[in-house]
Fold these 4 entries.
Entry 1:
Amino acid sequence: MQTLRYIIKRVLLAAVSLFVIVTLTFFLMNLMPGDPFMSEKATEENRAILIAKYGLDKPVHIQYLRYLENLLKGDMGTSYVLQKGRAVSDIIRESFSVSMQIGLKALGLAILVGLVLGCIAGLRKDKIADNIIRVFSSIGISMPSYVIASILLIVLAVNLNLLPISYKKSGGWVMPMITLAMYPACYLARLTRASILEVMNQDYLRTERAKGMSEFVVVFIHALKNSLIPVITYLAPLTAHILTGGFVAESVFNVPGLGRYFVSCISSRDYTMIMGITIFYSALIIVMNLICDILYKIVDPRIKFD
Amino acid sequence: MGNSNGVMLQVNDLAISFFTKKDEIQAVRGISYELNRGEVLGIVGESGSGKSVSSHAILRLTPDNGVVKSGEILFEGNDILKMDKKQMEKLRGDRISMIFQDPMTALDPLFTVEYQLNESLKKHTDLSKEQRHARMIELLDLVEINQPERRLRQYPHELSGGMRQRIMIAMALSCNPDILIADEPTTALDVTIQAQIIDLLKDLKERLGMAIIFITHDLGVVSDICDKIIVMYAGKVVEEGTSRQIFYEHTHPYTQGLLESVPEVDTPVEQRLKPIPGNPPDMSCLREGCAFAPRCPYAMSICAREDAPLIELDETHAAACWKLLKREEVPAV
């Protein structure tokens, strides 16, 4: 009951946040010089017709109100430039399903690798394994993803000829997945390590040992569960980020996902796409945060919803 | 369990050091004592005297950078320090169990009381699920916790400090241990709760007949629960005797100082407490001679050069102080 009330409250709050985001984005976007049709090879007259057709000649606040009205009806408009004439919601649905397929795999990989490496490093502090993992994860965190993508391409696809360069061939998802998972896996490893080191000194683990519990129970039930709390907090933004696909990973490997639209819709001033993607991304982050908070509560009984 | 008075635990010449990058901290420097069946032993000393370290070593709970340098800890004749992992797991929580100083941090915050109590019972007994549940209720009754069914479902953060310590005690007693090690079990609690916990331990000892090692820095706390008391200073035993001997016939200047610094109910308000002057020694660079000598009002020249051995005063009473010897018995320097 308490949980339900909390969720309802959070959903209402989310609506307010989304409204603010929509408003800010809409006006900021209109402050940018240029318009969606500036690259059209058309005469001044034809451009003016296009602008009038989409209602872009009206004052900004009128455009804003009209956008809001349509949005409330569930209509995000059609793309002006990138896929001219197609409904924005269709484009997002289609490309997000591609991004999500790779994203879910990358997320699973990142969590698995991050937690396992973090645990090993934390439990073997200052031993060889810890040092190797620390060096590896530092490199993984500081390396930009286009470098990772290029190295993967050169080594796995070109030199070893293990994987196809094109996304469309079978196994084409492997390299984008690794590229996407690299940073979060390394970050998670470091986070888990720090968390485990902190938890390993806690009094309650000594109590567990004094009770005669095996080292396995002490570490993998009590220490691990406690050290997961800070990790869960990081999972919300991570999940949203990974699911929407990295711009770099999708561009380099030519994946028809949502990530590559992030930048291209802005540079082409595709207004409806900018709005649609911003709303979608924001909503995803908000939902992920809510899920994480509920997860948080499940793991840590000390958390109170109110 | 029985009433036989055999020696159950024997600590012989135990020495433990902690190693940091540059120093060796000699936390325990060769202590010996015996614990009989059903006996309550008090170990008293200030912070850093080695009282906790030495008793954690009984369950081999010394932190990783601590090394047992010498000595043996015999439990029913077997050296605990030589036991393997499996033997240790069987010993801990079953034959010897322990409660700790701070009940606020000693329970895992993410698991219910029931889960944590059940863990020990599952590990050490063959009871069925229903029997374990009944046993848990019985244990909570034993440590005088009301609404046991409800408490079992609660998490540690929903309980008060006193209640958590009672849970700790219930957990420690769950498998009828032969020895309960209580490491400053009341230090972190309110004074009124302190008294309740001491009374509870006293009562449980009468009813269950286990031996208790009671570690404290507060002589007042152990006065009427202990059969015998060991006073530790700088990692060594400076005086040992029955509770009566320590309180009324003490001979070591440190024991005297410790007793004089305890406030009493009938002390006039305007009278100031009598602290022991000076500070405890730095255990990473101990000087020659008696560690207490720099703070001792009776220090003689020999005290600065040579440490006094434990001198037996009678069958149960011994103290490590040169002034107990006649002038001609003190070694010439």
Entry 2:
Amino acid sequence: METLIFGRLNYHDIPYDNPIIMATLGGAIMLLLVVAFLVWYHGQWSYLWREWFTSLDHKRIGTMYIVLSLIMLLRGFADALLMRTQQALAEGGVAGYLPPEHYNQIFSAHGTIMIIFVAMPFFIGLMNIVVPLQIGARDVAYPFLNSVSFWLTVAGAMLVMLSLGLGNFSHAGWSAYPPLSEKHYSPGPGVDYWIWGLQIGGVGTLMTGINFFVTIWRLRAPGMTWMKLPIFSWTILVTTLLIMLAFPVLTVLLALLSLDRTLGLHFFTNHLGGNLMLFTNLFWIWGHPEVYIVILPAFGIYSEVTATFSRKPLFGYTSMVYASLAIATLSFVVWLHHFFTMGAGANVNAFFGIATMVIAVPTGVKVFNWIFTIYRGRLEFTTPILWTLGFIVTFCIGGMTGVLLAVPGADFQLHNSEFLIAHFHNMLIPGALFGYFAGYAYWFPKIFGFRLNETWGKRAFWLWLVGFYLAFMPLYALGFMGMPRRLVHYDNPLWQPYLVTALVGTLLIFAGILCQILQLTLSIQQRRLLQENTGDPWNGRTLEWSIPCPAPAWNFAHLPTVHARDDFHVTKQSGQAPPSLPYSAILLPAASGLGPIMGALAFLLGFGLVWYLWWMAAVALAGLVLCLLVRSLDDETEFLIPATTVEATERALRRIASSPYNASQVSQ
Amino acid sequence: MKIHHSSLSKTFTGFVLSLILTLGAFSIARGWTDLASTMRHVLLVLLALIQILVQLRYFLHLDGSPDQRWKRWTLWYTVLIALLLLGGTLWIMHNAQMHMMAGMESS
Amino acid sequence: MKSLSQDLGKNGNDYATEDTHEDLTLLGFWLYLMTDCLLFCALFATWAVLHNNTAGGPSAHDIIDLPYVLIETLCLLFSSTANGIAMMALQRRNTRSLLGWLGLTGILGVFFVAMELHEFLHLIESGNGPQRSGFLSSFFTLVGTHGLHVSIGLLWLLTLWVQISRKGLTAPIHSRLQRFSLFWHFLDLVWVAVFTFVYLIGGDL
């Protein structure tokens, strides 16, 4: 009876005997309570619910995605700090302060969070904000689905966060290879948290992929042919294609592992006919395209930023498009390079090694395109361009070590070593994260109506860049010195100086993050000073800069007609004033509370499945079906904004230097 | 994209062809035992491919019209990736099996 | 290269201008089906890798009853055809005929699911459940995932049937029927691959 009600949940699952976790947990709960209290104190809960949580406005959903990503970044970075400190200390007779089972959970959580709940929501947030604006649309193809996708991502992230205080997280690494991740070796709820956090977030991502593919395919402004599509939207189109093709494999993989664990099937077990190498194979069929899923949007951002601040059209636009398409297809024929050492023969390894080297070619094309865009341009050293320059230089190093690892012979020496850790951080931090930061600074005014403080943005950049080199270059050396990854303790005094250097680098990055927090706070305080009245703070080239800052709820009062690539730039050059057209009423998607409700139900579903609370999972599943039914019977999913409101808001935003907050009030 | 008007004759053609192909496949699998098994399997795969094309054409109404270009693009790209996934997996796993488990019972 | 970009460019002109909501949902649904293709593809790959791993248990040859599978297959094919005829009734806006053919679609679908469940239960009762071996795990999961899709389709069909008989042929219902029809034909298509590879070839290895 008790197991029927409580599943395998037990009060012993709260790690009250672990001071580190309890302090973190206490701090987190306190912080949550303080924030909740402050919101309540200012009477803002109903505002948050009405205008944000239930909103189907792509810009608001995008902003919430980025907020989620930044919160998760803090968590993921805290994990990094813990690991670096542990490794700097734990040499020889010193055990460090983290017990092995805790340390294993930390590196597993760090990887999972950084990729699935930091990188993914960050670029999905940016594309939510930017893509409809760039292609001249009023919203995405399926605004309701967009809200559900977001709340599913939140549900997944919350499951991973909950594992901190209830039970434990997976200790099997972010890739959760069996047999370690099988029930026999990991009987606790940790791996199940990993499975269901990823599964729920992954379904949300898959739906977002379909949503944005259709948005770009069908909602482009009249005249915006494929070769006039802004390059960021191009890279997003390719990214969503990859999402649609890769994420179903993750869904299957996670389902099979959970069947093994929950129902005792034999897909990846090492007895009764399971094949654990099949897991590795399927994991990387998803995992390698996933790398390009997080990196291609950043390539798009770098392209936009480089062209804007070089005051030149992007060099080799067409080659950029074809390079993205080539990367998309090639990313499906290189997955074996993640497991060269699994035991396939030389011919198999050679094929995938060569394919891996080939994929460096379109990437190289892109790097040259950015350099040639800058060449003889009038480069303006703003924060976004600093992130871009830092990326170009650093990414080339990562790319070269990648080609090195693509040689199976070299990989046999370097796999599973710190060299690999250095390599993929070298790809993902400058490759993806720097790009998102550039996009964050670049498009911030479009949402909030004021720019970010440049001084603190530049300080943050330099700290991140220097911190990155200090933190990861020593790891390359450690890899050559034979240090394996994921060590909680080691007996080689030669390694320690390198690890201490890496810790110093991590602390510099920490200072960079503090600068970013300071930058945001200061910018909000100085928002009148930094206010943006023209709608075009950077002298931009694409359609999103043709509308006011902050963008009104309907984006475009008059849907634009596109005549050229970089249409807005061409219009500005022609010197023609935009014709004053009469305003008309606009239909927009109405807010819906079903998104957050479905997110909550998905969270309960995941929770029930992790803890074997079958009744809870069944109720939550039924609730989800009911939500869909309610939605399908709802005929009033849109509301009309009268022409007078549109006109008044547009005039206020374009002429009178009013507070951005007032402007968004009008649009409600 | 227009909504595709199907006709009774189209549906009927699709049905009869699918029926023949299905019955053909089952009778090959059951009856033609004197044929080499590889040959039999090739025939079965061929029949399945034809039936899939028949159903795409007559049931899912996929044809060469220009307003279905996006459907064909997405379908063929999906098929390409699916084949890479299947082929790659079988090649890799078979190869690994040969090298790692040779001489051992697969069970 | 040039022709590709021209082709793509043309596409942009065609579609970027006028679009109805209905077209958008149908396009999205088609893409969902493409992702489902990949999902089944991963399951087929799993089956292909594991189908020899019988762990001393039965092989496909021992558990497959071809005449039984043939009846299942015909159920689904007839159901798919009935659905095709129902869509023609939809074009003529003949509600009674539509409800009749959709009913037949559903009943044949129920037969299919019932036969599959019976097959599964029989296997489990004789000690050859999915926990028995890697082969049986992959067999149950691949065939079962298809069966789960069919079952969800049946529930969907039921809600549509009730909506049509209550509200008549409204525009949203019309659009939902279009999507359901795609889904149903798609499932028959997947089944062609299932019976060919898992039952006919698998049972013959």
Entry 3:
Amino acid sequence: MAGLPSSTSAKEKPSAGVFDGIAIRLLAPSWLMIGFFLLVPVAMMLVYSFLTKEFRGGVIWEPSLAAYDQFIFDRGLFGDEPPVIEWTYITIFARSIWQAALATVLCLIIGFPTAYFIATRPANTRGVWLFLITIPYWVNLLIRTVSMKFLIRDTGPLNQFLISTGLIDSPIHIVNTNFAVQLGLFYSYLPFMVLPIYAAVERYNFALSEAAFDLYASRWTTLRKILIPVVKPGIIAGCILVFIPSLGAFLAPDLLGGAKTFMIGSLIEEQFKGSAGNWPFGAAASMILLSMVLVVLLFYARQQTRSINGAR
Amino acid sequence: MANTTTDVRRYPGFLAFTILCLVLLYTPMIIVTIYSFNDSPSITKWGGFSWRWYQDVFFGIEAAKFKTAAWNSLSIATMAGISATVIATSAAIGMIRGNSFKGKSLSFGLINLPLMVPEIVSAVATLIFFSAIGITRGYFSILIAHMVFCIPFAYLPIAARLEGIEKSYEEAAIDLYATRWKAFTKVLMPLLAPGIISGFLLAFIISLDDFIITNFVKGAGVETLPTAIFGSVKQGIKPNIMALSTLMLLVSVFFVSLSYYVSKLGERSR
């Protein structure tokens, strides 16, 4: 194993800890891999977003703001008309934020009671419940999304079932709607909502609820005024863990949605597919997505520090 | 309404939500599994039980394509999983047992960077990087990309396990004149084994599952199972794809159960 030399220097000073002095050598392989194959590529992507597009895919090494300009302005077919605001891409980003937000709310509505229920089970059965919630996460996302599409198609088992029970006469069109995409995102990332809320509720001191009950608070008042404020960090963590991957999701909007539900992920993917693409524009869209994610993560980090300071 | 005899923990209706949650999570997969045994070539009507689509996966027209894709997927997942586990074990020891130094918290951020950057952004960045430095897209580029995003997944269970092992074991080994390498291989590694195994299994599954990054860096001609399935599904969901999906589903469930079982064993041995 690289970075673990059979040095005997530790023998002279055993009190110093066995792996003292070699932390950097032990960490170097992970830094090199992630630094060289992820951090450098992201920096390169930033550079590419300021280059000129090559028509067969790729770039010409000439600095240009065209990618960002194209994102906001429409300058006509030949680029010589006075710029007007181009709403296409702004709309796609706004739609992605909206869809991701709705999927997050759906996950919260179902995920919170579930997490609470599991956290209040006897300690020996909690593991099994959690395991049941996490299994779907480990099943291939593509397969799960395809399964969802199969289930909700116009001629799929769900519609067949509803028609056979007489609840509906003609199939409900779900595929290719905004709702199908929200459902797909919800289904993809639900475990991410349950796990942090579960961890927060598990640490919750139920003496607080008892105290509220003794003071004649109702169940729902206790939930609203005591439990939810205390487990709020877990709820925020869950919301972020669902929102971030939903924002850049590709499979759910691509397979379950249609042209009207186009999201950032598909927009980016199109720019690198075949010769019709535009690499600088795709890089710029990726940079904007990444900045949005960083803003959310910074907000989260601030919340965390605040809640730690508040607890002191 | 509220008195001291009520169970303060219980909220009526929360069980119903939990059941709804599980139904929503499992129904699509169960339905696809059932329909993969459908004898009828029309995917909408039930025509009796049959193994024919499984035979089709292994011996049908597309069998050769699936076999190559399965081989690519499994070999990449094994190699990426092993390398990520070795790198993550070394990193976990460095982070948890190593001396402190300037920027150690930054190092934690760097190890978890693949989890924070949206997958599609990593995909774009990796594609641009490979094309800029002139690495041909194919098997090797997929392998490198997988190694990178597998590191944090392998790291988490290994670090969690290491935090629960007292320093005194490896210190005792050193006191008895073991070299640092021996203290690691003979003392720390056996104790850490459940974490290392579940780290590897998680990295393996994550690599096997990946679609987006693979789709960007694979280039023409090289397919893994997810990209091959995606290509087929674009033309409509066919029954043989459902059979193949069911097989992959079983593989994932098997490995996750194994990882869960190993970590349970680990907890007991502590």
Entry 4:
Amino acid sequence: MTWDVVIGCEVHCQLATKSKLFCSCSTSFGAPPNTQVCPVCAGYPGVLPTLNGAAVELAIRAGRALGCEIQDSSTFDRKNYFYPDLPKGYQITQYNRPICLGGSLEFEVDGQGKSVRLTRIHIEEDAGKLSHGPGGTVVDLNRAGTPLIEIVSEPDLRSADEVVAYLKSLRNLVRWIGVSDGHMEQGSFRCDANVSIRKGTDEPFGTRVELKNLNSFMHVKKAIEYEVARQASELDSGRKIIQQTRLWDDRAGVTRAMRSKEEAMDYRYFPEPDLPPLQLPDGWDSVPLPELPAERVARYRDQLGLSAYDAQVLTAEPDLSAYFEDVLSTGANPKTSANWVQVELLGRLNADGLSATESPVTPDALGQILARLADKKLSGKLAKLALARAYEGEKLAAIFEDLGEQVVDPNAIREPVKQLIEDNPAQVQKYLDGNQQLIGWFIGQIMKTSKGRANPQVVKSVLTEMLEATRE
Amino acid sequence: MTIHHQSATQLTRIICAGDISAYEVTTASLEQIQAENPNLNAAITICAEKAQAAAKRLDESIGRGEIPGPLAGVPIVVKDNLCTEGVETTAGSHILRGHIPPFTATAVARLVNAGAIIVAKSNLDEFAMGSSTEHSAFGATKNPWDHTRVPGGSSGGSAAAVAAGWAPISLGSDTGGSIRQPASLCGVYGLKPTWGRVSRFGLIAFASSLDQVGPFARTAQDLAAALQVMAGHDPHDATSTAYATDALNTALEKDIRGQRIGICPEWMSGNGLSTGVADTVSHAIEVFEKMGAKIVEVTLPKTQEALAAYYVLAPAEASSNLARFDGVRFGVRNEANTLPEMYKSTRGTQFGDEVIRRILLGTFVLSDGYREAYYRQAQRVRGQITHEFESAFADCDLIASPTSPVIAPLIGAQTDPLAMYRMDEFTIGANLAGLPALSIPCGYSDSMPVGLQLIAPKFREERLLSIAAAYERHAGQPGVAS
């Protein structure tokens, strides 16, 4: 039988602050172990946390972009458990009164609009990292105390594909507004998924299983699909689903039980006495938010006349969208720009594994090429050539000088056309006998002798006129 | 009189005048400590070399004409749960043997910046959990007035040090009475400031929402000077405040006529209160009245539940605060084959019984299924007690009571933990409500000192100091134990 799938997500997103949540240690990635550690983030006796205001600002920005109710007053709690990567023996988090409540994210799955409600967003600190080796286990506390937000969704997702689309959209948003760099491979964007199935959409929710260790969108998709199939097979064969946490084992392609509800940790939450309630100052909402992806899609579609597809592609990623915006700001035609960025530029960038910010052709250079195209100083073909050469690193001025300007004056073309007609009486006769297709051959010849500079439309009209004139 | 037995204020005056060097004062203090500590056991670490070096530097800077701080050359003793950079800080526990902090507690640093010189780190009940300083990994401290008795606790070493004349000022921490009770039992002043008045950065936490750092002294003026230096916002402690300290300056000269002192009848009899203590405290209150204070009756029925609420909340926070002592990063580790075994062995053997008792208690009251009945209920009671104090302060400016129901018990006499906990009956309320409170030496019972507790509204420490100074003008300064 078919099952209705119900999924909610918990996303841990590292905030893009320079320093940690409760001390001034750096958060930069990849430093040698335990070089970004101080007595505070190492949990030394006697230290106290002091809240990083920049982290709060980013959490608020995320909450506003997701339509959450930002709480004027929120509080911190301690989540207690023992583990060597958790220096204080507790994690400072927001359990009872998080900074953001509610909100939602709208996105598209296979061209269909989808909205997922959010439960909450709260601020918390990350733990350190353990490395297991032949000589034993070592602790690296560089990451301990790094600021995170946890974005918790309602169980509104219905398939692995929806989850992946939701996560991609959410990741794009947090990167877009500068809240996080969203690097999944560096652990700065991590997802846990709560998966359950039920017989029909009217049925109550089934027993849920929490999936962890989903380190890429591909893992998310495979793990959920595996888990849905596993749960269906359990229920189909009359067994029950056990509430538990399961880890995705990508090598084996299966989820494995980590701990059951009975073994669930008792975190003994209680209010963090070392931090006063977080009271937002007046005017916290006066800083304008940048134009968000959904708003930009609407503007591209409704005001610039781009197709829905183009609008989606050009806003799917903050770097590319910023690039496109910069091209537009040179005054280039939106539709032409959209075409050129997607067809001419993006293909090259993707092939070379470059992001839009790393493009060898700057938005301004592309704007100049498109301006020459619009002025008919370059033919389409030459403009593409100009882009290709600029991409290879050639200076734009040199390219333009070399290519020269397109010939659009019909009188300047009459002489070579006259010569062509005289030199090819047989072809002319065939044309006059009705082989109209030959016009292409004539155009090609003129384009060749003009080194591509002649405007093909002008060439065609001069050719037609002069060929017809030979009938008399 | 030995030179370093003068008040801190007087010492700074004569050092700055060039009558005596800071080095001489420090050396005199150190000599007494070295002579008496083997018997008194009030110090865990004696900072002889560092203290003498600091005193020399101070003398040189005074010689160069630099302006000395308000506590220049004053020897101070610091409770060993306050971190001191480069000096072992044990919190009275085996688990922190050899632990040398990389930073100094803000309260201590401020005193040192004002010219004070740390001569010793004092003994305490392990992690400040206890009321007798018998629960220290480094042995019990003796009461300077009678070496067969305890000095109180948990800041017993600091109270004993000032009472014995080792230093005019010492520092303690007070979570449920740990400054006031030993001050009472040792016959010195002990002040627990308003929660948030003095930075807790560098104080090894017992119960963060109740802990507060404060001074011991033998004169009201020294107490005020120490508080003045330590108070104020600290960027390292988000719960510290920038509340003004101006009133502290003029508090000592202030006439107490018309001050309304509240007396709570349920605190003046019963509850294990000894007759000797009750009579001594009542007599002191009569003195206040003679000096023009107005005695009014207030009622604080909810404070009957303070002890119960405290012994849920304080262990709950302690169970979390002490989780970091896991043998991974600092202090002592018992090697074992697996991680859980290492945790169990280290924490099971390096913590003392009283600490383990409170960690277990705290873990239990926070656990799923019990949190509502214990932790949350205790939080509610705490709120009610806070409210009750606020209401009481509508009718009075201060509240007076005995500090401890009894004089210092004999060493080894208290075997029942509950009996020990009950010694904090009168002091715990101020911690739960975050109020400033002071123990004033107010006489003797059976030749042992008795303390009177004054509690004021938040950030009104000046009221406590005004009464203390006025009483001191009447009764004289408390003397060095002999």
